[in-house]
Amino acid sequence: MNRAWSRREALTLLALLASCKRPQERCGFCGMRIDPKSPWTAELILQDGGRQTFDSPRCALLAWRMGQVVATSLRVQDYYDRAWHPGTEVLFVTSSDVLGPMGPDAVPVDRARAPQFAREHTGTRPLAIDDLTLELLQQLH
Prior knowledge:
The chain is an alpha+beta fold. The chain has helices at 7-19, 57-65, 114-120, 134-138; strands at residues 42-46, 51-54, 71-77, 84-86, 90-93, 99-100, 103-104, 107-110. The protein has a four-stranded antiparallel sheet.
């Protein structure tokens, strides 16, 4: 039977399609669902210019350091203002009392505020991205 869709049927179908949820993005390392509003989200910039998203800086750095993702750089959100910054422009505080979505994390903080953050949140000294070795990241669990 070949018949044209009525206006009502077409609108009903459009409403059903619009109400379907898109699959939620998942962390490229641990597979956890990523809350699009999360201040912990991090991105690795891939060699082809694309991006891979992670639920936390630790997951992004582990994927990068373990060679699971070939990337040129990391982008993270600053702890205080939640603005996106290249990983080379912030410092990372480890072992603080601030926990990420997967537990202990390397908290990205603006370089000027990092020493204060470390003092106030019992963290270790602030570290540059190159100081975050695979061994150090694995110890954060």
